[in-house]
């Protein structure tokens, strides 16, 4: 076998991206096939069943559940308000009567003649799904949602936190290897997507939150800083719901790691344009990476080497584990047979040349395909 | 099936990242593993079809075996025709996140715990356990059910003839939540009811309209009895019918196999139970994966399985650090390392889970983390694998003093016969002795224990095979699946031991003659004893030291040789690690040297 399958992250100036915008439960789709959207267009709406409150009426009245029918003053399906009497006991000779009141405002949904438990459902909770990207509705799933498709620049990060957001792109560092410092973030960056080189230290992230920056896109972050920012040590990379005041997209990994030149160049070219950003990451089955999407005109969809997923002699790769973590390299040998590493493990390897000209041999698992050509 | 012997068996396991295939053939020596192959799992875009990965893995097997297994129609050829195809094709699966279940029972540590055991035994990931006495308000329980979106719910509660109202209440809560399945919104959520027979009607009233309800025998018919099989079997059936049918490509896979597709962990449990019952031994098995660590045990004939959902070596590696703390990881690392660098390194593994250590130091850090993941998962297993709680029990006077019996753990490391490890970090450890020491450091076996690893993680495939061809499954398990590492002898002090004295004397009848060894406190030694050999050992412990026959009592045992040999562990239980960093590093270096643990360069 002369090539290997190594999925990488998509970084492209000419990508087509489709995002499914689906309701958590069936509801109404508010747009039609072919409609143009902005990130804020509400595309679907549903009413989530209201919260449920329970109360054991039979127990409160001190009667057998089967005897409850005669005591109820409301019927299943009736509207009730908090404090309203819903059941009364007959008492003894008209005395010692007991009453049970509704614990919630909503509907008296049901009660059980076996357990005596009643279920009250509060009014439905409306939920809306927005388009998230400026594009076109390309598929309508009746009652569920839509697909929104756009073309433009797409940058996937390796890891992120925080919800979907959007704003104009601002590039704050001059170079991929420069760290993003607090001084580089100004009040006019409020609501912006700030892009900065090799690492965003905690002080910078905190300052960005104060300023009201919508998102930071950076090469690396220290694990210790992430722990401080979140307030806990993240154990599993399933994110997207964090509320730390901004959305963070890390393009390379943990530590001080220069942003890939291609990523930086693409984002620099898009400076001033409005991007849609999501920090949601799921490194599990159903893998999801954080992303920066910048809809815009393109000449043709670019099929990158990353998409084809095939590695061959001459392929550009990035080394994704020590030693040489972060380095770009070019594949010069892909021996089919496993070979022993320093650890003595026999694995499939490849030989690459680094930009310095040095030849190194690495496990194939420790590189990812990149397409650095723009 | 016909009476003709099965000549060839192909079995695949679709994991969340890799699909693995093995080919078993009937030879003059019985059933043997012929070849194996693997390919990335393809349940996600752009493939969205699990059978693509299966076909890729099978193609590799076919190439290696020089045998056509896939027909021109793209299907696996069954039965075998001449030299082409196989007589049986079987599969297990944990792709798509496995089987995620919610279980409920009336009393948390009685029926709810039995229900949890049934779900885990069936191979599920248990997302939450609801109980009438779990201290949550009903509305909190309802919102939890709605939020979780499980693949299936197992509802139990009440012994037969016991409470009906509490069971009805639980069913009503589930009904009120109107839960939606995780995969797909166009089918009803399967709910299995395995509780008090007298509450069936009330449960039907509450759930029949809203869920795909099925009713099976009570899993806890009396306080003293668990009857988990009907619930487990039903879970397996529904897994196939409902859950797997929603995952991309599974309908196709189902139509290819000669027997139902089993959830991977359920299949591993099946083979471990088969081995324990055939040999009459106690077994502890662990499978440490990227996201989770499963522990399986059979003690006193009772099978238990636990899943430590977020303890693993890649996806969950960062959670191992978050749970155990940096210090516990660092105590196994034989060099000083910058804390910030270690944290970054671990997080980078989390976000790029398929990378592997290429430097020795990197490997040593990963093996340190593995020790902690394994150790934590055993703690969870011990807490779960217990006698039935609430059981009426006649106790003798010694049990009354030790408070053993109802609710006490079944996991007794001194009585453990066989410890089996599997999962990449153990099975692919560059030297087998590294796997042996990880197992010993993490699990701290006591007395005399045989150690083995599952060389290529074949247990899932053999588990599903055991369900229809036990003979073939056990033959391959013993001959090809297990790699015998050898035996560990670990004396345990039960009281004060005189300072400076040996903990035990071990007289071994080795191939090159009898030899005597002393197990000194704090020592670790390795003695060669070849694979497929038995070594007679007379072990005489010091006063107050136990090697399995009681304090100070000598015993004679037959030890299994193996790729590692016999390890004499005098480090005590729990293992006595020096707290001072320099002393700790020196101790690890000495042990590593004695065991030839790592290459010296």
Topology:
The complex is a heterodimer of chains A (374) and B (601).
Chain A: E1 11-22, E2 28-29, E3 36-37, E4 42-48, E5 52-56, H1 57-61, E6 79-80, E7 85-88, E8 99-101, E9 106-111, E10 117-121, E11 125-130, E12 135-141, E13 145-156, E14 159-161, E15 165-171, E16 193-196, H2 202-211, E17 215-221, H3 223-230, E18 247-254, H4 261-269, E19 274-278, E20 291-295, H5 305-308, E21 316-319, E22 328-333, E23 339-340, E24 346-347, E25 349-353, E26 359-363, E27 367-369
Parallel strand pairs in A: 15-16, 16-17, 17-18
Antiparallel strand pairs in A: 1-13, 2-4, 3-12, 4-11, 5-10, 6-9, 7-8, 9-10, 12-13, 13-20, 14-18, 15-19, 19-20, 21-22, 21-27, 22-25, 23-24, 25-26
Chain B: E1 8-14, E2 18-27, E3 30-40, H1 50-65, E4 88-93, E5 99-105, H2 111-121, E6 124-131, H3 138-148, E7 152-155, H4 165-177, E8 190-193, H5 200-207, E9 212-215, H6 229-246, H7 250-256, E10 262-263, H8 264-279, E11 283-288, E12 293-299, E13 302-308, H9 317-324, H10 326-330, H11 339-351, H12 360-384, H13 397-402, E14 418-422, H14 424-427, H15 432-443, E15 447-454, H16 459-466, H17 470-481, E16 482-490, E17 492-493, E18 504-510, E19 513-519, E20 524-527, E21 534-541, E22 545-546, E23 555-560, E24 565-569, H18 581-595
Parallel strand pairs in B: 1-4, 4-10, 5-6, 5-7, 7-8, 8-9, 11-14, 14-15, 16-24
Antiparallel strand pairs in B: 1-2, 2-3, 11-12, 12-13, 15-16, 17-22, 18-19, 18-21, 20-24, 21-23
* Corresponding CATH superfamily of the largest domain in chain A: Phosphohistidine domain
Distance between the termini of chain B: 57 Å
Q: Specify the number of helices of chain B.
A: 18
Structural class of chain A: mainly beta
- Shape annotation of chain A: elongated
CATH-defined fold name of the largest domain in chain A = Glucose Oxidase, domain 1
> What is the number of helical segments of chain A per DSSP (H or I, 4+ residues)?
5
Q: Low-confidence segments of chain A, ≥5 residues, pLDDT <50?
A: 1-6, 304-308
* Uncertain ranges of chain B: 395-405
* Total count of strands of chain B: 24
What form of chain B results from the Cα inertia axes? Answer: globular
DSSP strand content of chain A: 35-45%
CATH class of the largest domain in chain A equals Alpha Beta
How many domains is the backbone of chain B divided into? 3
Quantity of strands of chain A, as a count: 27
